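Following up on my earlier thread - several people asked me to post the actual chain instead of describing it. Fair enough. Here it is, all 64 residues.
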Amino acid sequence: MKLAGRFAVYLGIILIVVGVIAGFGAMFVNQDSAGIQWLGVVPVGFVVLLAGTVMSQLSRPDDE
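Reply from S.P.:
Thanks for posting it. Predicted structure:
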């Protein structure tokens, strides 16, 4: 579960960064419809990031 949480955190960060860069980049070149679609990825990235953080924090620590 901890590995899945860590993967979800990284995936969320990637989604947020790509959505913001591609969204604002498309809006700067006057492609507003594509920019809005890319900016729509950002809330999904926040949800995945939050879910990954919760998964990694609520999982049991490894016994080593």
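The radius of gyration is 15 Å. That should answer part of your original question.
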